[in-house]
Structure formats: C-alpha cells, structure tokens
Amino acid sequence: MGKLDNKVILITGCSTGLGKEQAIRMAAEGAKLAICARNETKLKETKNICEEKGAEVLAMSVDIMDYDSLVEFVDATVERFGTIDVLVNNAHTITIPKPFLEKTIEDLDVEMKSSVYAYWHLMKLCFPHLRDKEGAGGSIINFASEAGVKGDSLYAPYAAAKEAVRGLSRTVAREWGQYNIRVNTLCPNGMTENASAGLDSEALSLEARDHIRDAFTNNPFQRAGDPYRDVAPVGVFLASDDSHWITGQNIHADGGILISA
Fold it and tell me: What is the C-alpha to C-alpha distance for residues 219 and 102, in angstroms, rounded to an integer?
C-alpha cells in the first residue's frame, strides 16, 4: 500500500529538477500522474521512470505561460483519469541572477507569468475536479521559495513572484476550505541537476555562483539537500490524506536554512 494509492496528481515542470523527483516519488507511492514540461525528450525520461515504479502516467508538452495549453492539459488529465485529486504547481522559469538595477521588466514578466499567473490559472481550471471530495478532500501544493521569504540578493523577480504565490495561496486556502480543498506552499531546498549546472555557467557572475553554493549548504546539517530523499517526501505528505488538517501553511523543506520562532 502506498501513501498516494489511486490519487490522480497533476504536476508541472517534470522534465528535470524538483518536479521530476517529486513525480518519481509520488509514482512510487501509488499515484496516477499527469505530468508536463516544455522539453518532450526529458519529460519522456521522467515518464518512463514513473512507469517503472508502477504508475499510470499522462505526459504532455505544455508551456505553462500559455493559457490554452493549460486548458488542454487539464482536459486531457480528466479525460484520462476521470478526476484530479492533487495539483502540484512546481514549474517556474528563473531568469539569470543579477542585481535589481540590472533586472528588466521583461524578467519580471517571465517570472510572474511562469508562476503566479500559471498557478492562478491551474487552480481555477482544476477547481471543479478538486472540490467537494469526501474524506481528506483535494490538495493544492504551490511551490514557493525562501528567496522571497528572506529577500535574497540577485533574485528580485523570483522573490517577488514567489511571495505573490504565498499570498495568493493563503487567500485561496481561506476561500476553498468550504469545498474541502486545502492549499499549502512548499519552500524546498534541494540541489538539482539544474542548480549544479548553474554553478559552472559562464552566464553567472562569481557573486551569483557563490550565492548559489551558500544557499544550498548553509544549514545545520552542512550539506546540500537531495531532491528525492529530502524534499519529495514532504510533497508526498501534503498530497496524502495525512495532511487533511493542514491548510494555508508555508512548509520549509530546507534542512533548517530558515529557522524562526
């Protein structure tokens, strides 16, 4: 028996990184998955791994900044599985880290549209399928970031977008509790292949690379978190019936990088 047996879970941004590892972990726990990303080749790799874990998987190439693509993805999910039990808004396009004065309004547009706008649209599109379920009800997990909570240097558009996600999620949690839907945000910290590759990118300044290294290892455990072992289980918990009495909360799966009273 898995913690997510027969739950239909829609996850965005599953070609690499946290979304990929989240999908694989949820597949191992018995979920039926609808996964998307822009990179079809890498998305297929995720799909194959999830199927090896025993999951039934729908994989679609989707640009989450395109509303019509989101509609098609949700419709295809419901056509395939009949419903949606959990929505995981993970995907986000991060622009190159630079000081605020060097950032452009175009950078802000990209980060807002790939997170706040996409999460907004998907929550509304999934609502008819998430609402009024018996038992633990529906669950929405919106990925946020400590970059917004702390106000990390070099990440102005990212921090702004992720804090907007947290504010939106708290409001929707209040409004949708009556429909037995819980809404929480997850601030993860796990060293993905994307982050590792960024450390060697010539597009990043030395300051940015040092900042990234510190962001992943400056914690009480003095190591970088693993997306599959350390972060994904928290997503599984929030998707599972065990989290039925938790809503409107921000969960830090970060190894204690951000400790507060």
Answer: 29
Cβ atoms of residues 186 and 11 within 8 Å: no
Nearest to 249 by CA among 184, 166, 174: 184
> Mean pLDDT lowest for which of 80-89, 139-148, 195-204?
195-204
CA–CA dist 183, 139 (Å, integer) = 6
The values of phi and psi at residue 162, to 5°, are -70, -35
Amino acid present at 68: D
Q: In degrees to the nearest 10, what's the CA dihedral of 186, 189, 193, 194?
A: 70
Q: Are 10 and 84 in contact (CB under 8 A)?
A: yes
Q: End-to-end distance of the chain based on CA atoms, in angstroms?
A: 37
Mean pLDDT of 226-247: 97
Of residues 199 and 55, more confidently modeled: 55
pLDDT at 161 over 60: yes
Exposure of 90 in the CB half-sphere (CA atoms within 13 A)? 28
Domain with residues 8-253, CATH architecture: 3-Layer(aba) Sandwich (3.40)
Q: Measured between alpha carbons, how far is 261 from 184 in angstroms, rounded to an integer?
A: 19
Domain boundaries, the chain: 8-253
Residue where the block lists tokens 């395109």: 66
Give the three-state DSSP class for 163: helix
What distance in Å separates the CA atoms of residue 66 and residue 51, rounded to the nearest whole number?
28
Amino acid at 216: F
Is 179 known to be catalytic?
A: no
Above 90 in pLDDT, residue 78? yes
Selecting among 119, 158, 179, 228, the annotated active-site residue is: 158
